[in-house]
Amino acid sequence: MDAADIVASVLVLGIIVVSLLSNVVVLICFLYNPEIRKQVPGLFILNLTFCNLLLSVSNMPLTLVGLVTTGHPGGSSFCQIVGFLDTFLTTNSMLSMAALSIDRWVAVVFPLSYHSRIRHRDAVIALGYTWIHSLCFSTVATCRSWVGYHQLYASCTLCNVRAKGAGTQFMVFTVALHSLTYLLTLIVLCVTYLKVLKVARFHCKRIDVITMQTLVLLVDIHPSVRQKCLDEQKRRRQRATKKISTFIGTFVVCFTPYVITRIVELFSPGPISPHWGVLSKCLAYSKAASDPFVYSLLRHQYRKTCSLLANKVLKRSPLNSSSSHGTQNNAGRSDSNSNATNSVQPATDKPPGQ
Predict the structure, then answer these.
(1) How far apart are CA 354 and CA 352, in angstroms?
(2) Which of 27, 220, 268, 306 is the most exposed place for a label (fewest CB within 10 A)?
């Protein structure tokens, strides 16, 4: 192993740990909180979490083994199964992101009719399509023996070396796969989220107009309060842009290098650096580690659920702790009041209260 392989191995190991922990937390939140389970986006997030978890325990460890041993991890049949999972899980996760973006677009653009437009039945139908779509491509690749260990990516995946006898067919298949998964998902993400951003900016402008009219009417308002309102307007506009940039940006950064390398590999006569191939695969794997934070754990509902679970594990409750502190303070005040009463009460033979 050279220095680049060591760095890549450490990177893959870190991705595995973060992906496993974060996706398990999302799964626990989904199972623990009934409100999350009732929401339609929860089904898409559950499917995305399932794909990320399975990818973390099947494909990523074999890539790590391939980097460490610099050889073929496992037998040919086992590698074909893992290659099938690689195509299926990656395609399924991309389409789940597209479904999530459509759901959020409907929720923002049509808020009053959202529950009638997007129901659990519609979500199940959409998930059924993602599974059929993914199964079709992965099954065709496996049946044609186009999956195996690829030295360029140090992983079991689509392998052009195994498809030398069907060069044109493999090229058409690969281009169709990435066009109907990566490119389709990217187009859906851009169209839906940019429409969401447009609506969000429109509402921000309306709020800004109302805020400025209020500031004009409040002549005696302190300059610091006025500046705080203006700063809040700026943060509100930036918040919407950052969220949309995160959704689209993480997808582009993580998947684009791998897809471009795949396409270049088909038409390039010269060899591609194995270090670049492994790096592009690591970037694709990193999407499984970032998805829980992008779509779930940074939302208020999931953070609140995580806080409740942490308090439950530590056997403490914020309500109980605050009430116990309040009881202790009340007891202390009662003792001090009784001492003060006894000190000022006149000495008589009558019992207190008579």
Answers:
(1) 6
(2) 220
